[in-house]
């Protein structure tokens, strides 16, 4: 590709995911197959543009996806329809990712949000882990992986001020692990994350309002167990450690901007869900960008250029710079959903011919196995979106197994949360490894291996209890 064309295509590529988001939102509210089809076309244009303009994008997944499409068309009469259904699944992922990226970009321009992060990272040693894991959770609800980038950088910056190299090394590890586990705990219940959105879409009878409380219990347990393990296994030094003091001021005062943002998003999503009778994820997808634009407008009063001018500038940057910078991530997420969906489409009809009947297995075994299968496939390089999209359609429905859908959802999202702390191929582990200056596999197995084992046992027991309580 010529030197002049590549930058132009890269800048244009950010327009496509915005179009996918707008088309998906309109299609969901209007129940329009035409708009849904347009979103699918734009999502394919997104992947093509990123694969051509960004050499770092995982093109191998696109090649695998194309090969699967050819196989589907040659092996099944409805292969084209199944392939298009997989495109629509991937389109939904792009739309949700774009919507959530908007709020992350708005937050990056907020000095108040940065101040919240500095307050958490500056806590005294006795409170630091708990502060950062709760902060990682609260920030993760809104910023997703951006919470790790924000708090991880602030934690590393805070640890580097410690002159003793041994204390500095332990402090950095404990702070980064706290941030990571706090973020991972959002994966087990947050309606703003891919884990809950995809799982509730795949599990028959599952809706976020019906599964939120059982899954929130997993999140709370992850925070408590992590805090307890940090206190029990904290490093013992042969010399006294100087006790520092944390920043002054009350917690509510310092965290007020973040808590206010969360309150606005949660309340707005709930009201929209009730008033428009749309799925919670659709309400998130449509409301969050609105909040992001309002927030950017508010930030514009101190920009010196005017609010509307500031909004136009930031939207332009978001479209032509921010989204293209995440092109590889968008390709990976789309292809994970696409390959998982199309793989299930090809494999499900083959199972009876191969003599495989998962319905013959004990329901408790199926439910509990999902807690471990998702992290295991994560160690093999499979994104949870791919593994869940591939495996869940092959399982008997909760009604067929005689279990509450909440049990299966809790097992899946619980395993997804564990994957967020252990898989060396996930963004959360990669980011923590880069901040901690260790390999992603060291983060997953050495820093979080025992924690993942404990949480796997706890989540298995909880999911089994939910399954038996129906």
From TrEMBL:
Coiled-coil annotated spans: none
Claim: Transmembrane helix is one of the keywords in the record: yes
Keyword terms: Membrane, Transmembrane, Transmembrane helix
Membrane-spanning ranges: 9-27, 33-53, 60-77, 129-154, 175-199, 211-233, 253-272, 278-297, 330-348, 354-374, 405-433, 445-468
Protein name: H+/citrate symporter
Organism, as annotated: Paracoccus aurantius
